[in-house]
Amino acid sequence: METRKIRIGSRDSKLAVIQSELIMEMIRQAHPELELELITMKTTGDLILDRSLDKIGGKGLFVKELDQALRDGRIDLAVHSLKDMPMEIPKDLPLLAFSKREDPRDVLVLPKNSSELHKGKPIGSSSARRTLQLNRLFRDNPTAGIRGNVLTRLAKLDNGDYGALVLAFAGLKRLNLEERVSKIFDSAEMIPAAGQGILAVQGRAGKDYAYLDCVNDKKAEIEALTERVFVTALDGGCSSPIAAFAQLEGDRLRLTGLYYHEETARTITGEISGCRNDAEALGRTLAMQLKTEV
Ligand SMILES: NCc1[nH]cc(CCC(=O)O)c1CC(=O)O
Q1: What else is known (predicted)?
Q2: Is the CB of residue 13 below 6 angstroms from any atom belonging to ligand 1?
Protein backbone atom coordinates (compact mmCIF):
# COMPACT_ATOMS: atom_id res chain seq x y z
CA MET A 1 0.00 0.00 0.00
CA GLU A 2 1.36 3.41 -0.84
CA THR A 3 1.77 5.78 2.11
CA ARG A 4 -0.53 8.75 2.16
CA LYS A 5 1.27 12.05 2.24
CA ILE A 6 -0.16 15.08 4.01
CA ARG A 7 1.32 18.50 3.22
CA ILE A 8 0.95 21.01 6.04
CA GLY A 9 1.16 24.72 5.32
CA SER A 10 2.45 27.27 7.80
CA ARG A 11 3.73 30.81 7.99
CA ASP A 12 7.50 30.75 8.14
CA SER A 13 8.03 32.54 11.47
CA LYS A 14 9.75 30.50 14.15
CA LEU A 15 6.60 30.45 16.31
CA ALA A 16 4.39 29.39 13.40
CA VAL A 17 6.75 26.55 12.52
CA ILE A 18 6.92 25.35 16.14
CA GLN A 19 3.12 25.44 16.30
CA SER A 20 2.76 23.49 13.07
CA GLU A 21 5.25 20.92 14.34
CA LEU A 22 3.16 20.51 17.50
CA ILE A 23 0.15 19.62 15.36
CA MET A 24 2.26 17.35 13.14
CA GLU A 25 3.54 15.51 16.22
CA MET A 26 -0.03 14.86 17.38
CA ILE A 27 -0.95 13.43 13.98
CA ARG A 28 2.25 11.39 13.86
CA GLN A 29 1.55 9.82 17.27
CA ALA A 30 -1.96 8.75 16.34
CA HIS A 31 -1.26 7.94 12.69
CA PRO A 32 2.28 6.67 12.13
CA GLU A 33 1.15 5.43 8.71
CA LEU A 34 0.83 8.97 7.37
CA GLU A 35 3.75 10.81 5.84
CA LEU A 36 3.83 14.47 6.84
CA GLU A 37 5.54 17.33 5.08
CA LEU A 38 5.79 20.94 6.29
CA ILE A 39 5.55 23.68 3.67
CA THR A 40 6.25 27.21 4.88
CA MET A 41 5.43 30.51 3.22
CA LYS A 42 5.51 34.22 3.88
CA THR A 43 2.19 36.03 4.13
CA THR A 44 1.44 39.65 3.34
CA GLY A 45 1.21 40.26 7.09
CA ASP A 46 4.79 39.05 7.49
CA LEU A 47 6.09 41.20 4.64
CA ILE A 48 4.50 44.58 5.39
CA LEU A 49 6.00 45.62 8.70
CA ASP A 50 5.97 49.41 8.60
CA ARG A 51 2.23 49.91 9.00
CA SER A 52 -0.24 48.79 11.64
CA LEU A 53 -2.38 45.79 10.75
CA ASP A 54 -5.58 47.80 11.10
CA LYS A 55 -4.37 50.13 8.35
CA ILE A 56 -3.39 47.47 5.83
CA GLY A 57 -6.47 45.28 6.09
CA GLY A 58 -6.41 43.36 9.34
CA LYS A 59 -6.13 39.72 10.15
CA GLY A 60 -6.87 38.32 6.71
CA LEU A 61 -3.33 39.22 5.70
CA PHE A 62 -1.87 36.32 7.63
CA VAL A 63 -4.08 33.73 5.95
CA LYS A 64 -4.56 34.78 2.33
CA GLU A 65 -1.51 33.00 0.94
CA LEU A 66 -2.30 29.83 2.88
CA ASP A 67 -5.96 29.95 1.73
CA GLN A 68 -4.71 30.11 -1.85
CA ALA A 69 -2.29 27.22 -1.33
CA LEU A 70 -5.16 25.11 0.08
CA ARG A 71 -7.40 25.94 -2.87
CA ASP A 72 -4.61 25.20 -5.38
CA GLY A 73 -3.98 21.85 -3.72
CA ARG A 74 -0.37 22.77 -2.91
CA ILE A 75 -1.09 21.94 0.75
CA ASP A 76 -3.68 19.69 2.42
CA LEU A 77 -3.88 21.50 5.77
CA ALA A 78 -2.97 24.89 7.16
CA VAL A 79 -2.09 25.51 10.80
CA HIS A 80 -2.89 28.94 12.22
CA SER A 81 -2.99 30.75 15.54
CA LEU A 82 -6.76 31.03 15.89
CA LYS A 83 -6.28 34.57 17.21
CA ASP A 84 -4.94 35.65 13.81
CA MET A 85 -7.85 34.27 11.83
CA PRO A 86 -10.61 36.51 10.49
CA MET A 87 -14.09 35.96 11.94
CA GLU A 88 -15.39 34.99 8.53
CA ILE A 89 -14.01 31.66 7.41
CA PRO A 90 -14.61 30.81 3.73
CA LYS A 91 -17.13 27.96 3.29
CA ASP A 92 -14.75 25.98 1.12
CA LEU A 93 -11.94 26.15 3.69
CA PRO A 94 -13.46 25.06 7.03
CA LEU A 95 -11.71 24.92 10.39
CA LEU A 96 -11.46 21.22 11.18
CA ALA A 97 -9.76 21.03 14.56
CA PHE A 98 -8.82 23.18 17.55
CA SER A 99 -5.82 22.29 19.67
CA LYS A 100 -5.87 22.05 23.44
CA ARG A 101 -5.52 25.62 24.65
CA GLU A 102 -2.13 26.87 25.84
CA ASP A 103 -2.21 29.50 28.60
CA PRO A 104 -4.45 32.25 27.14
CA ARG A 105 -3.13 35.13 29.28
CA ASP A 106 -1.01 38.08 28.20
CA VAL A 107 2.29 38.85 29.88
CA LEU A 108 4.58 41.81 30.41
CA VAL A 109 8.16 41.47 29.20
CA LEU A 110 10.98 43.84 30.21
CA PRO A 111 14.13 44.55 28.23
CA LYS A 112 17.04 42.22 28.95
CA ASN A 113 19.04 43.41 31.99
CA SER A 114 16.13 45.50 33.21
CA SER A 115 14.42 44.61 36.47
CA GLU A 116 11.64 47.16 36.55
CA LEU A 117 9.45 49.23 34.31
CA HIS A 118 10.81 52.76 33.84
CA LYS A 119 8.22 55.47 34.26
CA GLY A 120 7.48 57.35 31.08
CA LYS A 121 8.90 54.78 28.66
CA PRO A 122 6.41 53.43 26.12
CA ILE A 123 4.96 49.96 26.48
CA GLY A 124 4.86 48.20 23.13
CA SER A 125 1.56 46.73 22.02
CA SER A 126 0.54 45.22 18.71
CA SER A 127 -3.21 45.44 19.16
CA ALA A 128 -5.85 48.02 19.99
CA ARG A 129 -7.17 45.58 22.58
CA ARG A 130 -3.89 45.56 24.49
CA THR A 131 -3.37 49.30 24.10
CA LEU A 132 -6.78 50.09 25.55
CA GLN A 133 -6.27 47.88 28.58
CA LEU A 134 -2.68 49.07 29.08
CA ASN A 135 -3.84 52.66 29.26
CA ARG A 136 -6.06 51.75 32.20
CA LEU A 137 -3.39 49.69 33.98
CA PHE A 138 -0.30 51.87 33.52
CA ARG A 139 -1.07 55.56 34.02
CA ASP A 140 2.61 56.52 34.02
CA ASN A 141 3.54 54.90 30.73
CA PRO A 142 2.33 55.70 27.22
CA THR A 143 1.80 52.93 24.72
CA ALA A 144 3.40 52.58 21.31
CA GLY A 145 2.62 50.29 18.40
CA ILE A 146 4.99 47.50 17.53
CA ARG A 147 4.89 45.11 14.56
CA GLY A 148 6.76 42.04 13.46
CA ASN A 149 6.84 38.50 14.74
CA VAL A 150 7.55 37.74 18.39
CA LEU A 151 11.33 37.46 17.99
CA THR A 152 11.49 40.73 16.03
CA ARG A 153 9.48 42.47 18.73
CA LEU A 154 11.73 41.12 21.48
CA ALA A 155 14.79 42.39 19.57
CA LYS A 156 13.22 45.87 19.36
CA LEU A 157 12.51 45.74 23.10
CA ASP A 158 16.09 44.78 23.90
CA ASN A 159 17.33 47.63 21.68
CA GLY A 160 15.90 50.04 24.20
CA ASP A 161 13.03 51.47 22.17
CA TYR A 162 10.41 50.36 24.71
CA GLY A 163 10.10 50.14 28.48
CA ALA A 164 8.21 46.86 28.19
CA LEU A 165 6.17 44.75 25.80
CA VAL A 166 2.91 42.88 26.08
CA LEU A 167 2.92 39.45 24.46
CA ALA A 168 0.88 36.28 24.61
CA PHE A 169 2.14 33.84 27.24
CA ALA A 170 1.30 31.01 24.82
CA GLY A 171 3.75 32.21 22.19
CA LEU A 172 6.61 32.68 24.66
CA LYS A 173 6.01 29.23 26.15
CA ARG A 174 6.07 27.58 22.76
CA LEU A 175 9.27 29.45 21.87
CA ASN A 176 10.78 28.27 25.16
CA LEU A 177 11.16 31.91 26.25
CA GLU A 178 9.17 31.69 29.46
CA GLU A 179 12.09 33.17 31.36
CA ARG A 180 11.41 36.51 29.62
CA VAL A 181 8.08 36.88 31.42
CA SER A 182 8.18 39.46 34.21
CA LYS A 183 4.46 39.58 35.00
CA ILE A 184 1.48 37.46 34.03
CA PHE A 185 -1.64 39.57 33.68
CA ASP A 186 -4.77 38.29 35.33
CA SER A 187 -7.31 37.45 32.63
CA ALA A 188 -9.72 39.96 34.22
CA GLU A 189 -7.30 42.94 34.15
CA MET A 190 -6.01 42.20 30.64
CA ILE A 191 -8.77 40.25 28.93
CA PRO A 192 -7.28 38.03 26.20
CA ALA A 193 -8.15 38.08 22.50
CA ALA A 194 -10.66 35.63 21.07
CA GLY A 195 -8.86 32.39 20.32
CA GLN A 196 -5.63 33.29 22.12
CA GLY A 197 -3.63 30.15 22.90
CA ILE A 198 -5.58 27.92 20.50
CA LEU A 199 -4.27 26.56 17.21
CA ALA A 200 -6.70 25.99 14.37
CA VAL A 201 -6.30 23.45 11.61
CA GLN A 202 -7.91 24.37 8.31
CA GLY A 203 -8.58 22.22 5.27
CA ARG A 204 -10.65 21.89 2.09
CA ALA A 205 -14.37 21.17 2.28
CA GLY A 206 -15.42 17.73 1.15
CA LYS A 207 -12.16 15.94 1.87
CA ASP A 208 -11.69 13.20 4.45
CA TYR A 209 -9.99 14.54 7.55
CA ALA A 210 -10.91 11.79 10.02
CA TYR A 211 -7.25 11.59 11.08
CA LEU A 212 -7.62 15.05 12.69
CA ASP A 213 -9.79 13.65 15.50
CA CYS A 214 -6.57 13.25 17.48
CA VAL A 215 -5.95 17.02 17.35
CA ASN A 216 -9.34 18.40 18.32
CA ASP A 217 -9.96 19.40 21.92
CA LYS A 218 -13.66 19.78 22.72
CA LYS A 219 -13.05 22.36 25.48
CA ALA A 220 -10.95 24.56 23.19
CA GLU A 221 -13.55 24.14 20.43
CA ILE A 222 -16.40 25.34 22.66
CA GLU A 223 -14.38 28.25 24.07
CA ALA A 224 -13.30 29.27 20.58
CA LEU A 225 -16.87 29.15 19.29
CA THR A 226 -18.18 31.23 22.19
CA GLU A 227 -15.52 33.91 21.81
CA ARG A 228 -15.85 34.12 18.04
CA VAL A 229 -19.64 34.35 18.08
CA PHE A 230 -19.31 37.21 20.59
CA VAL A 231 -16.80 39.10 18.45
CA THR A 232 -18.82 38.52 15.28
CA ALA A 233 -22.03 39.75 16.93
CA LEU A 234 -20.32 42.94 18.15
CA ASP A 235 -18.16 43.79 15.24
CA GLY A 236 -18.03 44.36 11.57
CA GLY A 237 -14.43 45.35 11.11
CA CYS A 238 -11.41 44.24 13.04
CA SER A 239 -9.92 47.54 14.12
CA SER A 240 -12.09 48.40 17.12
CA PRO A 241 -10.77 46.92 20.35
CA ILE A 242 -12.59 43.78 21.46
CA ALA A 243 -11.52 41.22 24.05
CA ALA A 244 -13.24 37.89 24.59
CA PHE A 245 -12.40 35.15 27.00
CA ALA A 246 -14.49 32.01 27.52
CA GLN A 247 -13.79 29.35 30.12
CA LEU A 248 -15.47 25.99 30.17
CA GLU A 249 -15.38 24.19 33.51
CA GLY A 250 -17.38 20.99 33.60
CA ASP A 251 -20.70 21.96 32.06
CA ARG A 252 -20.41 25.65 33.01
CA LEU A 253 -19.37 28.08 30.35
CA ARG A 254 -18.37 31.61 31.34
CA LEU A 255 -17.63 34.43 28.94
CA THR A 256 -15.97 37.76 29.75
CA GLY A 257 -16.03 40.44 27.10
CA LEU A 258 -14.79 43.96 26.56
CA TYR A 259 -15.41 46.41 23.81
CA TYR A 260 -14.69 50.00 23.04
CA HIS A 261 -17.49 52.11 21.69
CA GLU A 262 -15.94 54.69 19.37
CA GLU A 263 -18.75 57.29 19.31
CA THR A 264 -19.00 57.61 23.09
CA ALA A 265 -15.35 56.70 23.79
CA ARG A 266 -16.55 54.29 26.45
CA THR A 267 -15.05 50.94 27.32
CA ILE A 268 -17.67 48.42 28.28
CA THR A 269 -17.03 45.10 29.95
CA GLY A 270 -19.40 42.35 30.99
CA GLU A 271 -19.71 38.73 31.91
CA ILE A 272 -22.23 35.98 31.31
CA SER A 273 -22.40 32.32 32.20
CA GLY A 274 -24.52 29.36 31.30
CA CYS A 275 -24.45 25.83 30.03
CA ARG A 276 -21.85 24.41 27.64
CA ASN A 277 -24.57 23.64 25.10
CA ASP A 278 -25.47 27.32 24.85
CA ALA A 279 -22.11 28.58 23.58
CA GLU A 280 -23.51 30.51 20.63
CA ALA A 281 -26.44 31.96 22.57
CA LEU A 282 -24.09 33.13 25.34
CA GLY A 283 -21.79 34.84 22.85
CA ARG A 284 -24.66 36.62 21.11
CA THR A 285 -26.42 37.56 24.34
CA LEU A 286 -23.34 39.13 25.93
CA ALA A 287 -22.69 41.08 22.73
CA MET A 288 -26.25 42.45 22.82
CA GLN A 289 -26.00 43.31 26.52
CA LEU A 290 -22.78 45.26 25.99
CA LYS A 291 -24.24 47.08 22.99
CA THR A 292 -27.30 48.24 24.91
CA GLU A 293 -25.11 49.47 27.77
CA VAL A 294 -23.59 52.25 25.69
N1 LIG B 1 -0.38 38.23 16.57
C2 LIG B 1 0.71 37.31 16.69
C3 LIG B 1 0.36 36.15 17.53
N4 LIG B 1 -0.60 35.27 17.15
C5 LIG B 1 -0.69 34.32 18.14
C6 LIG B 1 0.23 34.64 19.11
C7 LIG B 1 0.46 33.88 20.34
C8 LIG B 1 0.07 32.44 20.32
C9 LIG B 1 -1.38 32.19 20.50
O10 LIG B 1 -2.19 33.06 20.84
O11 LIG B 1 -1.74 31.00 20.30
C12 LIG B 1 0.90 35.78 18.72
C13 LIG B 1 1.97 36.48 19.44
C14 LIG B 1 1.51 37.44 20.49
O15 LIG B 1 0.39 37.97 20.45
O16 LIG B 1 2.31 37.72 21.40
Answers
A1: The porphobilinogen subunits are added to the dipyrromethane group.
A2: no
